[in-house]
Design a protein that fits this description.
Length: 450
């Protein structure tokens, strides 16, 4: 009888943990999948215009903002991890402090981006390759979209805070609104008003501010208990700020290296030629589709592992990690099979240019392989963020980018061309997951001792 009771107890724990993972991951998947769907709409609208330079323009312009915004992705990541730990420890004051600090930092960084927009664009287009026509259109895109910075970074901070409180539903609603409005504005400006790449940028600006307004409405309506007044001295407490910026600086370096690798991929594609730039831009959307799907489980991992650490529950932390990987690998297999079966059909949704589709299909195996090589990296990212093991994330990224990706690229690009570029990307993603896996035991043990 005791054995039956014990097995029933263990079964309930497993069911409960998987329910928590799905409760957090499914809304995050819905939220995240709207982002690449928006990218598909952007590419599709440009792909159906009469000149492929429009695809290249938003690819280069988008690459710049990937570097900018994803470099500041530490706002969402660290806010999520810190908030989840405070929530697990039932520390309401610290939850409020994290909110105030992260939102203040977000708006300050956004102001700096707007002030420094001219040197940022000058440096960006010095580093990125592309034809003169592509760069001209990409500059127009940049000077419009930069004014979305306060809304974009503000949403990073607020969504990370909501997620840390184990609430993935609010970020999902905000993401659906933002991306639905963005798509609607795209149709208005491009189809209705006959704009091109500048219409895509303007649509992003209007949609982002709509999302920020909704986020503040949710904050006021659902979380008034945390909107408590504190003095500036309390909010800017030295030791808390040191820890906040230490974790953020490590995540910043990690994220900057990741985005530089992805941006290098786009830049090298442009150097090969406008056709390869368009082909790789189209194919890369499938990587983003999987990445945002896998990040749904990673975001759930941030909230659940952070909560387990805050509650000092070592066994729950280990079980959470194990079940996150079950879901992550399942998603990777499913996406590889999807791309194997339907890649050409999906490409035809994005463009009716037969020559681009024919060229893209020559590199299909790299796209099919990518979910399997990258799944572990996404899941470990969520775990490491949740337990705020930012230094370990930074170090593994340094090794993967500088000592795996760079040599793999230079050793293969001259002989294999674009295939060498895709090979280096796959090897880079696989090495990130393996490196984090190799040191996970030490990192998790240290997190539990803190």
């Amino acid at each position: 009888m005791k054995i039956v009771v014990y097995l029933f107890y263990k079964f309930n724990i497993v069911i409960s943990l998987n329910r928590q993972i799905l409760r957090l991951s499914v809304p995050n998947i819905v939220s995240n999948i709207t982002v690449p769907l928006l990218g598909l709409v952007d590419m599709a609208m440009m792909g159906h215009l009469d000149n492929p330079v429009y695809i290249g323009a938003i690819a280069l312009g988008g690459a710049i903002f990937n570097v900018i915004y994803m470099s500041f992705g530490f706002l969402r990541m660290s806010t999520s991890g810190f908030t989840a730990q405070a929530f697990g420890a039932n520390n309401k004051k610290e939850i409020t402090m994290i909110l105030y600090r992260s939102v203040a930092v977000a708006f300050l960084l956004a102001l700096l981006l707007i002030i420094l927009q001219y040197p940022i664009q000058w440096l960006s287009f010095k580093l990125l390759d592309g034809s003169r026509e592509v760069k001209t259109l990409a500059r127009q895109y940049f000077y419009i979209r930069i004014f979305a910075a306060p809304a974009t970074l503000g949403l990073y901070a607020l969504n990370g805070w909501f997620l840390g409180l184990q609430n993935a539903r609010i970020p999902m609603i905000i993401a659906i609104l933002v991306n639905s409005l963005n798509i609607g504005f795209n149709f208005l400006f491009i189809i209705g008003l006959k704009m091109t790449s500048e219409g895509v940028a303007l649509a992003s600006v209007l949609a982002q501010y709509s999302g920020l307004i909704l986020a503040f409405v949710f904050l006021w309506k659902n979380f008034k208990v945390y909107l408590v007044r504190y003095t500036t001295a309390v909010i800017l407490k030295a030791d808390a700020l040191v820890r906040f910026f230490k974790v953020n600086s490590d995540i910043f370096i990690r994220t900057l290296l990741l985005i530089l690798v992805l941006t290098f991929f786009t830049s090298r594609s442009a150097r090969i030629g406008d056709t390869i730039l368009a082909v790789n831009s189209l194919l890369f959307q499938f990587f983003f589709i999987f990445s945002y799907f896998a990040d749904g489980f990673a975001f759930a991992g941030e909230a659940l592992t952070g909560k387990a650490k805050g509650a000092s529950d070592r066994q729950l932390l280990k079980k959470t990690i194990r079940y996150l990987f079950y879901w992550g690998w399942g998603a990777a297999v499913a996406f590889s099979l999807l791309y194997f079966s339907l890649l050409e059909i999906l490409l035809r949704v994005m463009t009716d240019n037969d020559s681009l589709i024919f060229s893209a299909m020559g590199f299909k195996w790299w796209v099919i392989l990518l979910p399997m090589t990258s799944a572990a990296a996404f899941i470990w990212d969520g775990v490491y963020i949740g337990i705020t093991a930012a230094k370990a994330m930074r170090n593994t990224m340094i090794v993967a980018s500088l000592f795996v990706f760079v040599p793999a690229y230079w050793l293969t690009i001259d002989t294999y061309g674009n295939n060498g570029l895709w090979f280096a990307l796959n090897l880079f993603m696989a090495s990130r997951g393996l490196l984090m896996w190799a040191i996970a035991g030490k990192v998790i043990g240290k997190a539990n001792d803190e």
